[in-house]
Design goal:
Length: 245
């Protein structure tokens, strides 16, 4: 049988999910590709993969979109790894560099800037190693592992999931497993179980990362990232997609 092409993000927050997938029988039925979020999104849009753990902002752009698991990358409070970093308070920020690795985080920031902070700034697409340009009145949206490292550097940190929660009263879904076509029900069931398997082995996932001095991974996996796709999170996701339209 032809293998199902699966695209996954190669960030710390997906390690528990990949842990389960790589240790289950589903691995024999898929071709697993690991990349950064916007690259996986492009692959799904171009039909180069069948399912991807993608930034949710691309869902409206797909001709067909099916969320296939009860697992997602979300936060019910502080997410820690998706933030605006600055040397000055947000009121003084004039320019914001936008992380090229995630469309959802950038879209979320723009919604919050307009509706929550009610502020206008100049946007600039970030270049590689752009964190060094966070100075003066230039701030930046930084995501993923690099954001966890940036927490030790920038004096002002605005957590986007916290801001969304305060603005809407709902949790925020950053990424979900989305298919661009109908997939066999038995595959979907087995794939969902593989994801859940990883979440049952958080301690082993942490041990696999070795010494990680940047941030406490137990806190990250058990308090910051929330993996269950609940009804409340689906409401938050629907509201966000509505705002994008």
């Amino acid at each position: 049988m032809k293998k199902i092409k699966v695209g996954a993000v190669s960030y710390l927050n997906t390690k528990p999910l990949l842990y389960g997938i790589k240790r289950s029988e589903i691995l024999d039925k898929i071709e697993l590709i690991e990349e950064y979020p916007s690259a996986i999104a492009s692959m799904l849009l171009e039909d180069k993969i069948d399912v991807g753990l993608v930034p949710v902002a691309i869902i409206p752009k797909l001709k067909e979109a099916h969320i296939i698991t009860d697992v997602c990358i979300s936060a019910v409070g502080e997410v820690a790894s998706v933030c605006l970093f600055s040397e000055v308070p947000i009121e003084q920020v004039e320019k914001v560099l936008l992380d090229y690795q995630s469309r959802t985080s950038v879209a979320l920031f723009k919604v919050l800037l307009k509706e929550y902070w009610k502020k206008e700034v100049v946007f600039e697409d970030a270049k590689p190693n752009y964190q060094q340009d966070i100075k003066g009145t230039t701030a930046s949206v930084v995501i993923g592992d690099r954001a966890l490292a940036q927490r030790a550097i920038s004096p002002y940190i605005y957590d986007l999931a916290t801001a969304w929660q305060q603005h809407t009263g709902l949790p925020f879904v950053f990424a979900a497993w989305v298919a661009n076509k109908q997939l066999p029900p038995d595959f979907i069931s087995a794939f969902n179980d593989a994801n859940l398997l990883g979440l049952q082995h958080i301690n082993e996932v942490i041990a696999e990362q070795g010494n990680y001095p940047t941030y406490d991974l137990e806190t990250y996996y058990t308090q910051n990232i929330s993996y269950e796709l609940t009804e409340e999170k689906r409401k938050g996701l629907a509201l966000f997609l509505e705002k994008l339209r």
